[in-house]
Each structure stands twice: as C-alpha cells, then as structure tokens.
Amino acid sequence: MYIVIEGIDTAGKSTQLALLQEKYKEAIFTKEPGGTPIGSKLRTMALNGEANSNIAEMFLFLADRAEHIEEVVVKNKEKVVISDRSMISGIAYASLFELDKMIELNLLATNNTLPTHAILLELSPSELKHRLSQKQNDAIELRGINYLLNIQNRMKETIKKLGINHKFIDASLSIEEIEKQIEEFLNGK
Ligand SMILES: Nc1ncnc2c1ncn2[C@@H]1O[C@H](COP(=O)(O)OP(=O)(O)O)[C@@H](O)[C@H]1O
Ligand SMILES: Cc1cn([C@H]2C[C@H](O)[C@@H](COP(=O)(O)OP(=O)(O)O)O2)c(=O)[nH]c1=O
C-alpha cells in the first residue's frame, strides 16, 4: 500500500499523520520533499528559493520525487508506506505550468508509480484564512489565499484525471472525525 496524505498548507496533514503513526507501528512514514538524503538537500534548496529560474525550482521537486519513489516507495512495496505529500502536490503546486504537462513530467519522475490511496484534506476559503492568520507563514504560504485555493483545485483535478483511489475529507471537521473517516477509507469501508 502506498498511502498519501494531501492538502494545501495548514489543511491538517501533520496532525493526522501523527495519529496514524500511533496506529500503524509497522508502516514506513515518509515525506516529499525531503524523504531521502539527497531529497533533504533538494528540499532546502527548493524551499529557500535558491533557484532563480522557476523551471529549475520545478525540477528540484521532480528530482526529489524520483529519488523518493525509487528509494523509499518501490523498495518497500511489500510494506505500508504512508507519505506526507506526493506527486499530487508536485503537479498542483507547479501552477505556472499546464496541468497536463506536469502530469507527464511527474509520471516520468515516478516511473508511473501512483498512490494506491490518496486522502485529500480540503479547506474552505474561510477556514484557510483563519488557519493562515494563526501561524507564521513561509514563502509559499505568503503567496496568499487565492493562490492556495487554486492549488487545492488543481490537486482535486489531478487526482480525478489520474484515476487515483481517493477520499476527499472536509478539513474543518473535528480532528477525531477526520481520523475516523481516514480509518474507514483505509479499511475499505
Ligand atoms: N481538524 C482540525 N480542526 C481545527 N484545527 C486543526 C485541525 N487539524 C489541524 N488543525 C490545526 O491547524 C493547524 C495546521 O495543522 P497541520 O496539521 O500542521 O497542517 P499541515 O501539516 O497540513 O500544514 C495547526 O495549528 C493544527 O493544530
Ligand atoms: C511536494 C511539493 C511541495 N511543494 C510545497 C508545498 C509546501 O508549501 C512546501 C513544503 O511542504 P511541507 O513539507 O508540507 O511544508 P511544512 O513543513 O511547512 O508543512 O513545498 C511544492 O511547491 N512542490 C512540490 O512538489
């Protein structure tokens, strides 16, 4: 099983991953960007905005993803792998580029490896506004609410276009209710 937790910044991914970690003791928990040794260097470069070129920045994320899929996801395909983000974020956040073009590049980077289960925590505009006001924002989050809502739409479109087995969950539900819905989805209910 290759399970991915998706959602824009502040959707509640880390909160749910911490709960999953308590329940899935045998699973491998990983993340993008930064799930491998090379990936953690690429993550620093990408998130600090070290590349001047937008295209170079997009390729940093793709390089991270290619290494991560090969070294973590495929090498552990007999196990349960649970990842904080995936190609779904990769395609969606690269919003300067056409969706279909990003799908093609990401399928190349992942050698066509798709998540078996994608959970998308979906925020309403008002809840996103509230959550962003509660924290110190990094460079990507500072791009604003409309920017992030557009990314969220691209995430949904990507999941549907790729036909990935998925569950969209309202991120403003209680932490316990979201946890329950994730559990049901993973148990095939
Ligand atoms: N279901 C929820 N309802 C209300 N607040 C939540 C919920 N889940 C998480 N939060 C809060 O929202 C903020 C962002 O959550 P976090 O798990 O860090 O999101 P992400 O990892 O997606 O950026 C945190 O302050 C967290 O405590
Ligand atoms: C995976 C991926 C993430 N991102 C963005 C989303 C996030 O804003 C940021 C890092 O993700 P994340 O590790 O979730 O950030 P944090 O630790 O602050 O919660 O990178 C891209 O722009 N492209 C990508 O391919």
Report the total helices.
Answer: 8
Question: Low-confidence segments, ≥5 residues, pLDDT <50?
Answer: none
Beta-strand fraction estimate: 5-15%
User: What's the helical proportion of residues?
Assistant: 40-55%
* Whole-angstrom Rg: 16 Å
CATH topology category name of the domain at 2-26 and 80-186: Rossmann fold
Q: Which keywords apply here?
A:
189 residues; alpha/beta; Rossmann fold; 5-stranded parallel β-sheet; 8 helices; globular; binds adenosine-5'-diphosphate; binds thymidine-5'-diphosphate
What does this structure look like?
The protein has 189 residues and is of the alpha/beta class. It has a domain at 2-26 and 80-186: Rossmann fold (3-Layer(aba) Sandwich), CATH 3.40.50. The chain contains eight helices and five strands. A five-stranded parallel sheet has the order 2-3-1-4-5, sandwiched between helices. The longest helix has 21 residues, at 54-74. The radius of gyration is 16 Å and the shape is globular. It starts with a strand and ends with a helix. The mean pLDDT is 96. It binds adenosine-5'-diphosphate (ADP) and thymidine-5'-diphosphate. Residues 9, 32-33, 47, 61, 85, 89-90, 93, 138, 140 line the site of thymidine-5'-diphosphate. Keywords: ATP-binding, Kinase, Nucleotide biosynthesis, Nucleotide-binding, Transferase. It catalyses: dTMP + ATP = dTDP + ADP. Its EC number is 2.7.4.9.
